[in-house]
Write a structure and sequence with these properties.
Mean pLDDT: 81
Largest sheet: 13 strands, antiparallel
Number of strands: 13
Helix content: 10-25%
Number of helices: 8
Low-confidence stretches: 1-14, 17-70
Shape: globular
Length: about 350
């Protein structure tokens, strides 16, 4: 392994242009890890909610006064409410910085991603669930390496892209996602039961990016596991009314291009406060991320999380029944192994998911 690595380094040193092109290909694949493995850890999505000592039980007297307590000093019931006929416009912003200790060629990478999202509840289901349509209405991504622009795409601009550039397939795929309807079926508890429209979306992306290898490196942008995260808001909420000071915990396994990640989170009801003109419950978010199982898959690399932490805040409006804002800081150290070499990446990122408007 050491001999092969040295041969690769000598080859790259003799041809800097090959070195540049090869590193671009590797880190274009790394974009997918960032988008699916990081930007979608919004609230620590939980499969179970376990109250810390002192939290209220749903069968207690507090539960019966939960609704009135939302605006006062009593317990608050934090439950999603999808109101049919309205449109919830949200925006996802991610700013990420990473230092990649690649042998002989250290890389400092900056990635910015913005997505505009529109959620339109279509109907209430007889079982108490909801059907909600999601559309991506805006996408913006910028990637630089060592100060050089690698990818820049803004769906609101009509600037033509150079064929064969690293940005071209990313722009084509993200452009194909715009306004493609995805119909989410939510269970009464707010969890995602199914998503209709994924096959149609995949067909649009296939037409936009005919090269199978390029599509394979980006398929996690729009597969079922990734898209599910855009609707899993309820998994960060407790299944019972809570008071100030109460905490609840969560654990979930999340599929990503790098394998399966386990996210353990703890949420604490800090206080009630005004946030973006809403009467909100302020929730503190703390957690850690670790690799449960790693796979090379289409990335051509095995990625393991050596260390990962999440800290942040979320604001939930109990009357509206929706998150108004969430901000998390994530810090991860990744061990990456390719066929040619092994290296480490230290990643820091800030992610915000905000409610822009509710119409009409």
């Amino acid at each position: 392994m050491r001999t092969r690595r040295r041969r690769l380094e000598l080859f790259m040193d003799k041809d800097p242009e090959r070195k540049r092109i090869w590193s671009e290909k590797i880190y274009m694949k790394n974009i997918v890890i960032l988008l699916t493995g990081s930007s979608l850890i919004l609230f620590g999505c939980s499969k179970s909610n376990n109250s810390a000592p002192g939290a209220n039980n749903a069968n207690s007297t507090a539960a019966s006064s939960a609704s009135s307590g939302a605006a006062g000093g009593g317990p608050a019931e934090l439950k999603l409410k999808w109101l049919t006929g309205k449109q919830y416009d949200m925006q996802l912003d991610m700013n990420q910085s990473s230092d990649i200790d690649y042998p002989g060629h250290p890389i400092h990478q900056e990635l910015k991603l913005t997505q505009g999202l529109s959620y339109s509840p279509l109907k209430d289901l007889e079982n108490g669930g909801h059907q909600v349509e999601l559309k991506f209405n805006r996408q913006n991504i910028d990637l630089t390496q060592n100060g050089k622009e690698i990818v820049s795409y803004d769906s609101t601009q009509k600037t033509p892209l150079q064929p064969g550039s690293p940005a071209a397939p990313v722009a084509a795929a993200m452009g194909a996602m715009l306004d493609a309807p995805l119909d989410y079926t939510f269970a009464p508890d707010g969890s995602v039961q199914k998503i209709d429209g994924i096959d149609s979306l995949a067909g649009k992306i296939t037409a936009a990016v005919p090269d199978q290898q390029q599509r394979a490196s980006m398929q996690q942008l729009y597969d079922a596991d990734t898209l599910k995260q855009y609707g899993d808001f309820s998994h960060a909420l407790p299944d019972h009314p809570v008071n100030i000071g109460d905490s609840w915990s969560s654990t979930e396994d999340i599929n990503s291009p790098a394998g399966v990640m386990t996210v353990d989170g703890t949420y604490t009801f800090k206080n009630r406060e005004q946030h973006d003109d809403h009467n909100c419950v302020h929730i503190l978010v703390n957690g850690d991320v670790k690799t449960k199982s790693a796979t090379a898959s289409s990335l051509g690399a095995v990625v393991k999380i050596q260390k990962g932490t999440i800290n942040g805040d979320a604001w939930f409006d109990p009357d509206l029944g929706m998150f108004v804002d969430s901000k998390t800081d994530q810090d991860m150290t990744l061990d990456i192994t390719t066929r040619q070499t092994s290296f480490t990446e230290h990643m820091k990122q800030n992610i915000e998911m905000s409610l822009v408007s509710v119409n009409p």
